[in-house]
Amino acid sequence: MIVSYDVGSLPLQKPSETLSERFRERIIQGFIDKVKAGIEIPNYPQYRDMNEMFLEMMDGVVKTRDGYRLEKKPTLKPYSKRIAEIEVLRLNSKKISEKIGGKARIKMCVTGPYTLSSLFTYPDSDIFLFLAEVMAEVVRENVFREKNVEVCFLSLDEPVFGMVDDPRLDFSSEGREILVKAWETIFYQAKSRGLTTSIHLHNTTLNLFWQVSSLDVVESHVDDPFYSSNQTKKALEETDKFVKASISITNFDTLIRKKIMDNPPTKVPIEQKIGEIWKKIKNGELDPHIFIEEVSLMEERLIKTVKSFGAGRVIYAGPECGLRGFPSYNCAIECLRRVSQAIKNVNRQLT
Fold first, then answer.
1. Residues contacting residue 294 through CB under 8 Å, at least 6 positions apart
2. Which of 65, 99, 148, 309 is most buried by a 10 A CB count?
3. pTM of this prediction?
């Protein structure tokens, strides 16, 4: 059976409010709403900037006008070892369990060392391992199993990896080996504690991730050739890894663009049309739900991925990325509901 999970982020229910006003309430309700939408292993609801939230947990890291820099080898602040969102879910697990009718299973997402390093001024390759050691401690401090709740899944978020030309990752460079070791450091902490591990990528051209022995699952974006490549199939079998099928586009500008392209062309530039549609959505003149992809399209993508790699290799599915860019909270939850329904439909076909 294919299991559903989401990437993590959501828009706030009221765009005008600040997260600090109702942090606890928003985290609890966001998690419950994900479960009720049908997501089986929900990520803790992400409303904060994930890069900043982890860098703020570190000693030895200083923010400057030009970016972050290391004053010394980074360590985890002694009073800042818990991810606030996960701690809220843990402390309120009885209430959540009663609302969802069972034990809460949490997916923990942390930013990867490569992506974090991109925020530093003049970083060398050693920073990969420095940051990984701190993030491994974050993982260690936030894994638990209790009566009503458990953290059962770790996802390492590396959206910058493969997106820029980086001399540190040139062929045969030492940086490649250091990065693989850095990833292994984090994944080992999760794997040794019984968690399933995954890496979330936006580009899979650089395939260093296959070398990480403690990595279980690889995921990328909907249109990545990764999902139709014979090389992927071969690598999955050789490394005994699995795929999370990304079945829903989450960039809302892309969704609007696709809807525009389905209509007869006009002389108005497409970027101008996108801007006009956003204005109508924000003014309440247009329902954003019309831009969410249909369940049938999500099903098609999932079936195609299963046919490419076999049902035994496609064990998870979900949206391609977070939903913070969606115009409303309800619109984001509806996307998750459709994703969940598509997975259920395909599971019925596979049994």
1. 338
2. 309
3. 0.95
